[in-house]
Amino acid sequence: MSNPCALPSIALPPTEADLKALPKLEERIRRRVGMAIHEFGLIQEGDRILVGLSGGKDSWALLDVLESLRRRAPIRFEVHGATIDPGFPGYNPDRIAEVCEAKGIPHVILGAPIDTLVRRKPDITPCAICSRLRRGVLYSYAKEHRFNKLALGHHLDDLIETLLINQFFEGRLSTMPLKLVSDDGGNTVIRPLGTCEEEDLRRFAWLKGYPFVPCGCPLCGASVLESRRAQIKELVATRREYLSRRFEI
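Above: the chain's sequence. Below: its structure in token form.
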């Protein structure tokens, strides 16, 4: 079964040849994020953006790209990072805080009793409840500290997999939107990486030298939802490989 918090497949340090590919890769990701921001109106003048920073490849890429755009953009907006400490024994967010401090990016660690809740209620779906609790903590912090945007690191592969899971297992056509305003208007969730491919983000975070911080959950990947996602991920990968060979894309 796939573990979404497993170590990335790329583990060796990048070579000089690998690093030469970074500028082109970085430009491609920035261009796609910029197009998504423009097309979906993800960022406006004066926005205060809170980035959900787990320490995985996607959240590191998101923080890096948004901070880079903030420095270059003709409009002014703020970028802050927020990490949820779920209380799992193997999770250590200190390295995340160190990187943010070194880059001069404001960052906060927020505690959440996810470990206790998961252990007390073994019948619940761990990954789903963990995701909801994390978002709830981020929503509350964002509202309390006047952040009007919450940026999450979902990428194109996530959107495709969610669409197929909903279609195959629930009989509906829907996926995560790149911009979602809550019913009460109190929170706006944005997904700037929604047009970027997972493999690009994996290589980007690796080439940039960002540390991978696993979530530490002993049940990670054990839910029915994650089992379904693993099946869909395998299906998408198989079709992508076939099309790549068939049409040389």
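Residues 224-247 form the longest helix (24 residues).
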